[in-house]
Request: fold
Amino acid sequence: MRPAILDPLFAALDSLPGIGPKVGPLYAKLLGRESITDCRVIDLLFHAPHGLIDRRKQPGIADAPQGSIVTITGRVDRHQPPPRGKSSVPYRVFLHDETGELALTFFRVKGDWLSKALPVDDVVTVSGKVDWFNGRASMVHPDHMVKASEAASLPLVEPVYGLTAGLSPKTLKKTIDAAVERIPEIPEWLDGPLTAREGFPALKDSFERLHTPRDELDIDPRSPSRRRLAYDEFLAGQLSLALVRQKLRKVAGMPVRGDGRLRQKVLSALPFSLTGSQTTAVAEILADMAGDQRMLRLVQGDVGSGKTVVALMAMLAAVEAGGQAVLMAPTEILARQHHATLSGMARVAGLEVELLTGRMKGKEREAALERIASGDSAIIVGTHALFQDAVSYRNLVLAVVDEQHRFGVHQRLRLTSKGISPHMLVMTATPIPRTLVLAAFGDMDVSKLTEKPAGRKPIKTVIVSNERTGEIVDRLRAALAEGRKAYWICPLVEETEESDLMSVDERFATLKQVFGADVGLVHGQMPGPDKDAAMLAFKSGETRILVATTVVEVGVDVPDATIMVIEHAERFGLAQLHQLRGRVGRGSDASTCILLYKGPLGETSRARLSVMRDTEDGFVIAEEDLKLRGEGELLGTRQSGTPGFRIANLEAHGDLLEIARKDAAYVLETDPDLTGPRGTNLRTLLYFHRRDEAIRFLRAG
Ligand code: ADP
Ligand code: MG
Reply:
């Protein structure tokens, strides 16, 4: 149960004054929620300002710089309402100080509130932007107007928030202040010495400073208050990952020691030998599986580095030891492809590979479930359907998750909730900086595939304006005549989107006019069997150009495809372009990647495409991507910060992550059930950051 002390923060957001049925939906939109009923007070606390307005400049009127925000005190001289019937003329109020005169300018004024707010002869303080025109100073709709005697109440430094249409900054600020008021005195969950060393303010003070910055330094992510909040987030994240891990580890692993007979057969039938880093990865995995702790290992390797065969070796070892192994893919296409590849390789060892996906229905599905339950099927490939309730395993000892660049611990949690505790191997394709691995997975063991399989030819990448699409088509014609195969990728165009982008359907139609039956089409909206048929036709060579959306992005393997055309390349993220390009250059023939862009290109787009042209190294691309677009994009998500975090950002707070990891490890070593004094406070932290799922692990513990 959530500690009662947090109740005021987990109250409905519309329990704050001023949020009624009218603005409620605006707040939901601001916080990215479906409706106001999904929003809690605490959510608004994390809506951090991204800048500030400094009203501290208080020059004389004559010295107010053009276009700057100033605060001015003067005496009201006269009102000049628009002439009758001319509502387009503004209402002006003139005031002066020793240096000059200022016209306060208001449009479409209704009623006589101005004569009340600015009575003639009163001395008032106003704040806003000054505009000079023909030697006269004016201020259009001042942001603040008070009697000079109340000037002290003016916020001289105001935070600037992301807004949503219809929500005024003033209303938002009022609500946020009310939310900050609600923060109770929560017993400190941070370690004393660390707090002192880092100069972290207390929790409530940190939120107060976050929302009431005093100067630019307070807006900086490196300010002590922001660092404290970031540290809290990292610590909550590391603690919950460590708890899950501790739980998974507690379940003694089943030592799996294969005798190598199946692996031997498969290896000797492969048309290649493993690279050094594949061999090392396999050895690390087998050593883990043979131990009495559960394996939790990440295999990281760039596209085309050969992760599949590494996974197969681990699965074969599981089967040699009399167990079952599953491989879960993120998409149906990929599951089917893995199934085809693995079947081909495993057959020489006399093994049939089972397929189980969400698309399988009726008798076919029943039969598969039957074979899985009886243990007749030892290697099973599929989508998340593998872990639905209807599936039971005879003796599952290894689960491989092919995440590619999609992150998530959900599946892992789900597996454990079924009461199964196999060894775990997660494969990711994007070369992720270590800090991101840590943030997303916690402290996993990592094997890296650093070498490309031998014999790969570099991919030549060119950047071409879409005005030259005709030439590209001519070149394709020649390439096809030489027996080559090409992908032609178009961005996903939503039907509602009014745009001049070429959609897959249109591109398919135009290429069909030129190449006839040689052109195939595959996209996400097609019925499953049609997708499979299209992929198969391309693989077998029945079609030689495959027009596609990014469904081919992950993992699809057609080694003799050597040309990749990406239309509107400026619309794709670098990580995505790298994934797409990784579909070619897989065989022994030289490959080409053509990035077609629609000009004019902005500076960043140009830089991004140049990175693609200049390097094939996934790590370099990932780093550049990080620089050019921020972490969220690197992981293929749209958030601007580090995925899963609200204040914390690896670029600014990366140093804190490592500290948080050690902190979490130490806590769990000394107080594994979080029942000691600090442990109890840390439970509150987990609730505060909605890491409740980790608490469940504690209780079940
Ligand atoms: P990814 O790491 O992107 O999943 P795959 O496992 O799909 O890569 O492998 C890409 C291609 O490289 C496949 O066609 C595979 O058969 C081939 N391959 C894997 N290992 C080697 C190797 N050691 N030597 C040559 N080719 C290999
Ligand atoms: Mg793969």
